[in-house]
């Protein structure tokens, strides 16, 4: 694989002093972007565009993720918080607009159409998921499945740009990597009560909890320490470790089954952070 430098290339579009000073941005979609770059690099004619295509897709994803961080209501009165909200909206629009500029200047008009369709599809999926959340009809399994589907939409749009020999493996490998990514982030968020309603743990507990616990979770301002005790009761973090371990094993099996041993080796190296995390003493104690 050629030297991977997409995060460095993206910095000049993402790292602005005003944004970094007044608001926070989502994580860079490292795993999905690196996967896309590796798969495109295998194409005999598309390999020369692997950096450009991976870069613009990452910028669009960062834009969408930045918009997702904007609070639903606009009732913020404190100036600092209001400025942060406004900058998230503007930054998300700016990041997303860069793909139009970069692809049009490179003459890839057809890809603009493909990515635009994927953006619409991802937003449609988000609306459906939010509706299920509002109606309390979402399960913990649905939460992971739908989150993964939303996060993979932009990258799945490149199925037609893959070399035929790897095209069939692309969707499943992308899904498994993204599932591991989602579960790893869920483990991190499970250790704090912040944004607990936007988590796998919340939907799992809503399925398993007794009437009083469910009522408490639905209250306006629940006590973080009480939420933490409920999470401990239902072993949320431990169960997420189990899910991540199972997903990683599925991913390894899939990668080992690839015909191309070179590709298998490259993809296994991308998944090493998951393996290292699951091998840490703290995680081994949990599991």
UniProtKB/TrEMBL annotation:
Q: Which InterPro entries match?
A: HEPPP_synth_su1
Q: What is this protein called?
A: Heptaprenyl diphosphate synthase component 1
Upper taxonomic lineage:
Bacteria, Bacillati, Bacillota, Bacilli, Bacillales
């Amino acid at each position: 694989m050629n030297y991977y430098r997409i995060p460095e290339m993206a910095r000049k579009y993402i790292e602005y002093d005003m944004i970094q000073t007044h608001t926070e941005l989502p994580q860079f979609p490292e795993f999905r972007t690196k996967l896309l770059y590796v798969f495109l690099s295998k194409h005999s004619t598309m390999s020369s565009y692997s950096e450009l295509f991976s870069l613009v897709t990452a910028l669009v994803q960062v834009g969408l993720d930045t918009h997702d961080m904007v609070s639903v209501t606009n009732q913020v009165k404190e100036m600092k918080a209001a400025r942060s909200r406004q900058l998230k909206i503007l930054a998300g629009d700016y990041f997303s607009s860069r793909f139009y500029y970069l692809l049009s200047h490179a003459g890839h008009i057809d890809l603009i159409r493909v990515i635009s369709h994927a953006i619409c599809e991802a937003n449609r999926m988000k609306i459906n998921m939010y509706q299920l959340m509002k109606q309390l009809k979402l399960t913990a399994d649905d939460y992971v499945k739908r989150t993964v589907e939303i996060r993979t939409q932009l990258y799945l749009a490149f199925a037609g740009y893959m070399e035929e020999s790897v095209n069939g493996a692309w969707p499943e490998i992308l899904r498994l990597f993204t599932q591991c990514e989602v579960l790893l982030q869920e483990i991190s968020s499970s250790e704090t009560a912040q944004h607990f309603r936007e988590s796998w743990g919340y939907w799992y507990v809503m399925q398993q909890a007794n009437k009083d616990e469910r009522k408490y979770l639905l209250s306006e301002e629940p006590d973080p320490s009480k939420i933490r005790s409920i999470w401990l009761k239902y072993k949320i973090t431990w169960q997420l470790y189990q899910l991540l371990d199972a997903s990683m094993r599925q991913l390894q099996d899939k990668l080992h089954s690839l015909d191309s041993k070179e590709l298998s080796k490259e993809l296994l190296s991308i998944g090493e952070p998951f393996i290292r995390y699951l091998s840490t003493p703290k995680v081994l104690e949990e599991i």
